[in-house]
């Protein structure tokens, strides 16, 4: 597992990179820290190279909660941040997979299209923030893993 404490420039070697259309990557967020506390910044076109069209957050899960996610997107891109607490996220592009432990608000995981994701092992009181490149559109979702796997493996 990779921790969010590991900077982007130490990403896994290409053979373990997940995301054939757009590789997933851990990024450091811009931080402003002073005696008043910390402020983390995400900007469209700067932090992420997509326009943020939708923002949502998950909360109320426990370590024994069923996994979240269990889907992939055809075209949507996301930035996922553990703004409080921690959780594990496993990514799978049909060929490679990797698990990250998001555990600090100063880092985020960029997830490109055609990547199956499973979120689990939530610490108590975790809040996971997701910034998405598109509004909700059911037709963009793969909810059946076998269908996703077939389509992902047929990409050239």
Your description of this structure?
By secondary structure, this protein is mainly beta. Helices cover 6% and strands 42% of the residues. Strands 1-9-8-11-6-13 form a six-stranded mixed β-sheet. A five-stranded antiparallel β-sheet has the order 2-10-7-12-5, with no helix packed on it. The longest helix has 9 residues, at 145-153. It starts with a strand and ends with a helix.
Supply the key terms.
13 strands; 5-stranded antiparallel beta sheet; mainly beta; globular; 6-stranded mixed beta sheet; 156 residues; disordered N terminus
Cα shape: globular
| Poorly predicted residue ranges | 1-15
Query: β content, as a range?
Result: 35-45%
The radius of gyration over CA amounts to 15 Å
Q: How would a crystallographer describe the biggest sheet?
A: 6 strands, mixed
Derived structural class: mainly beta
Distance between the termini: 28 Å
Order of helices and strands: EEEEEEEEEEEEEH
Rounded mean pLDDT is: 91
Count of extended strands: 13
SSE arrangement:
Elements: E1 2-3, E2 25-28, E3 30-34, E4 37-41, E5 54-59, E6 68-73, E7 78-84, E8 87-92, E9 97-102, E10 107-111, E11 116-120, E12 127-132, E13 141-142, H1 145-153
């Amino acid at each position: 597992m990779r921790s969010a404490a590991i900077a982007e420039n130490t990403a896994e070697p290409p053979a373990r990179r997940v995301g054939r259309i757009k590789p997933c990557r851990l990024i450091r967020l811009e931080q402003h820290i002073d005696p008043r506390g910390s402020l983390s910044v995400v900007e469209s076109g700067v932090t992420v190279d997509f326009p943020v069209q939708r923002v949502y957050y998950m909360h109320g899960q426990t370590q024994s909660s069923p996994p979240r996610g269990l889907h992939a997107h055809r075209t949507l891109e996301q930035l996922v941040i553990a703004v409080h607490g921690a959780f594990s996220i496993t990514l799978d592009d049909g060929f490679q997979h990797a698990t990250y432990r998001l555990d600090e608000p100063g880092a985020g995981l960029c997830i490109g299209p055609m990547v199956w994701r499973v979120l689990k092992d939530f610490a108590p009181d975790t809040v996971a923030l997701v910034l998405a490149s598109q509004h909700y559109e059911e037709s963009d979702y793969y909810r059946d893993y076998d269908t996703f796997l077939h389509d992902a493996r047929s990409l050239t």
